[in-house]
Amino acid sequence: GRGVSFPVRADQSSLSSPTSSSSSGRRQLVAVGVIAPLVSLVDQTSSPSFAAENKKGFLPVTDNKDGYSFLYPFGWQEVTIEGQDKVFKDVIEPLESVSVTVFPTNKQDIRDFGPPDQVAGTLIKKVLAPPSQKTKLIEAKEQDVDGKAYYTFEFVAQAPNFTRHALSTIVIGNGKLYTLTTGANERRWGKMKDKLQTIVESFKLANV
């Protein structure tokens, strides 16, 4: 913001003015040193890539061991599921959930596995839906976040008595392949779509 840079500039000009004694000049330098990181923090929170961190109605999760973070809707409960790194789900609507899986990989980039639709198709059939369910990939795209390629895709998985409409994002970092998948019952997709989109878009890797 415009207002933010003003005090920093003022300090710098007073530093160069002959009237300031060296000790107060040092003090002002310290003040500038403190202000500068704050300024960058303020700027970050207003930039779109950090917008997800303080969304109303969501809670942040950070896994420092595996190096990822994401948001999940307020009210979802954490549950333990074999083979999943983290799972949160709605108590009343069990199909509304978010899960993260982490696999070791020697690949450096998700693009090494192939284009988004191909990778998404394989993952859906082999990992994200039971073999008994009929799956359909709706859309797959590649996004670049902080210099890393993320594949994000939308799909439906049809069981005999329900259809789950889901969104997934996959990325490689830290020698691991990360998959975050969230979804809802098809009949509630219209209502839940924006929330699920927020979850997927909030998924970020950190170096560990």
From TrEMBL:
One of its GO terms (cellular component) is photosystem II oxygen evolving complex. One of its GO terms (biological process) is photosynthesis. Residues 56-204 form the PsbP C-terminal domain. Residues 1-24 are annotated as: Disordered. GO terms for molecular function: calcium ion binding. Residues 13-24 have a biased composition (Low complexity). Signal peptide: none annotated. This is PsbP C-terminal domain-containing protein.
